[in-house]
Amino acid sequence: MKLKTLVLAAVLAIFTMSLAIAKTYDVAFSSTTKAGSIQLKAGQYRMSVSGNKVTFTAVDTQKSVSTEVKVETTDTKF
Q: CA 78, CA 73: separation in Å to the nearest integer?
């Protein structure tokens, strides 16, 4: 019983950490936009960034596309 509880706690901790690592943003594009190697139609998307990979999920269709990107951190927001 203790081993089962310990394994369950470890799996839950790993899952929670993976959710905390990826950052998610709601974005809207008014025209066709290129991100990395993909083109996105105008519309609203949920953008999830994890490391150098970004996933765009269309809000209306729930279709997702992913690509590699260069992520830069700056001192100021733009």
A: 11
Q: Which phi and psi (to 5°) does residue 45 adopt?
A: -135, 155
pLDDT tens track for 16-26: 555 556 788 99
φ, ψ at 17 (rounded to 5°): -65, -40
Mean pLDDT of 10-35: 75
Model pTM score: 0.66
What amino acid occupies position 54? V
Write the single-letter amino acid at 63: K
